[in-house]
Design the sequence.
């Protein structure tokens, strides 16, 4: 498949004068729904990958192979430019290069590499630690070296605001910007003053994870360089609740055809592209 056009569309998002909220997706059907609803970009998070692929919490037990395979399934299902959370690159700088190669081959439009010390080293349970800035820079350079399609977006990500403070976050942002990444992703920003200080220090497009209500004014975000702001991953939680409720009701004797909240037939046909498949069946199998 040709992935470059969707990567170019993602770059157009970064170059725009507004802030976009990505659709949080986790499989082929959710990606098609997000595309059907008009989302400009999608987001496949590492935490959601862990839960949807292996049924485990976000404790860095999902492998690169499992994550890349699910990203590929999402990408081949439609044309939604997909941003993914590549965590720490699944290891050191060499692993980061391999991570970029695999995710690029899986069709992602953008990926983040973070400077968190993952998985948690022995004796640090419960605390979030960051790798030294020099190591973070090495990872960013390795990610850029692993990129073969220049349209793929490489994003430097840090949680420094909530771990070590705004001053360290700015130092890391400047270092990653100098290394050549295309955008910067920040987790843990809670106040407007924090974002304004970061924006004054760097020129790259910004992305925010877990945007709190106090920072959700789209015009203010856009004016401060934010081009992508995550609002959480509620669709997966909603899907879990709906599945649980449906199975529980059936287990307790409810009529499975009368359960509330079932997707109508026309929606099921649209997201599975049934008409296309039946047309192909008619053209190729009818004889």
Sequence:
């Amino acid at each position: 498949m040709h992935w470059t056009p969707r990567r170019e569309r993602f770059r157009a998002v970064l170059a725009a004068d507004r802030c976009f909220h990505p659709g949080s997706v986790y499989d082929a059907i959710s990606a098609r729904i997000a595309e059907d609803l008009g989302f400009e970009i999608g987001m496949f998070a590492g935490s959601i990958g862990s839960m949807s692929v292996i049924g485990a919490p976000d404790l860095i037990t999902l492998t690169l192979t499992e994550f890349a395979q699910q990203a590929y399934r999402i990408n081949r299902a439609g044309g939604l430019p997909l941003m993914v959370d590549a965590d720490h690159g699944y290891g050191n700088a060499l692993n980061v290069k391999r991570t970029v190669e695999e995710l690029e081959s899986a069709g992602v439009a953008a990926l983040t590499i973070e400077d968190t010390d993952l998985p948690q080293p022995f004796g640090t349970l419960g605390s979030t630690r960051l790798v030294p800035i020099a190591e973070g820079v090495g990872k960013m350079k390795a990610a850029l070296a692993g990129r073969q399609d220049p349209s793929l977006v490489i994003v430097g990500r840090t949680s420094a605001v909530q771990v070590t403070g705004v001053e360290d976050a700015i130092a890391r942002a400047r270092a990653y910007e100098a290394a050549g990444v295309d955008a910067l992703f920040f987790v843990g920003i809670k106040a407007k003053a924090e974002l304004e200080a970061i924006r004054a220090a760097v020129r790259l497009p910004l992305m925010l994870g877990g945007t709190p209500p106090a920072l959700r004014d789209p015009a203010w975000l856009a004016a401060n360089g934010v081009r992508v702001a995550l609002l959480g991953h509620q669709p997966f939680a909603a899907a879990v609740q709906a599945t649980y409720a449906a199975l529980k009701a059936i287990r307790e004797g409810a009529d499975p055809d009368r359960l509330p909240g079932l997707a109508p037939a026309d929606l099921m046909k649209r997201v599975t592209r049934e008409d296309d498949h039946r047309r192909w069946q008619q053209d190729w199998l009818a004889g």
